[in-house]
Amino acid sequence: MRNKKLLKRLLQIVLLAPAVFIAFEFFAETQTKEMYDHALKETGEIGTRLIIVTLLISPLLLIFKKLKVLKWMAQNKRYFGVASAVYMLLHTLIYVVYLNFDQIMADLSQATYVFGWLALLAVLPPLLTSWDSQIKRLGSKTWKKVQQISYVCAVFTCLHWAFLGDELEVVLIHFVPLLVLEIYRIYKTKYKPQHAMS
């Protein structure tokens, strides 16, 4: 039990240490355009990769059922999801702090920024219900339904990145495996059992 708690703490530190470093580096000094671009890119990419990892755990576990590392990741899936949300929040905070209000409003005329804000809104319900007290209050069934909003967040995140316009291939490399494995998961857990009974 003690080792499990220690591993959880270590996982949290590993997941969130880059966020602390990026935030300190950005906010501790006078921000420059170069610092802004770097911090925005880093937080965006880490947050995106973490939500992909979070959503990949379940379909991969269906394929590699005996893989211990996947079982461990499934048990700690919440921490990956929370870390993803932290990076998205930091990503937004950096954006809001660096730009003025008029520029932020002007950016809303572009699809990439609209999808970015929608992704942020979608990540909030899973984040705010990721604590033990909320799980007990909601009950496991309702809690799991709320957590499924993470898929909506992933879609908006994909569109936010894709509409930036200069990294479409990178976006596809990141999200196509997730799409394929999610289709497999849905088939395996929902369609296939019903099909087999008919």
In a few lines, what is going on in this structure?
This protein has 198 residues and is mainly α. The chain has helices at 2-27, 33-63, 68-75, 77-98, 101-107, 111-128, 132-138, 140-147, 149-162, 168-197.
Describe this structure in words.
With 198 residues, the chain is mostly helical. Helix content is 86%, strand content 0%. The protein contains ten helices and no strands. It is globular, with a radius of gyration of 18 Å. The protein starts with a helix and ends with a helix.
Summarize the SSE layout with pairings.
Layout (H helix, E strand, L loop, with lengths): L1 H26 L5 H31 L4 H8 L1 H22 L2 H7 L3 H18 L3 H7 L1 H8 L1 H14 L5 H30 L1
User: If helices are DSSP runs of H or I spanning 4 or more residues, what is the number of helices?
Assistant: 10
SSE arrangement, N to C? HHHHHHHHHH
Write down the overall mean pLDDT.
Answer: 92
Would you tell me the structural class of the helices and strands? mainly alpha
- Which descriptor suits the 3D outline? globular
Strand content: under 5%
Instruction: Show unreliable segments.
Output: none
Helix content: over 70%
Please report the distance between the alpha carbons of the first and last residues.
45 Å
Number of strands: 0
| Largest sheet data | none
Radius of gyration: 18 Å
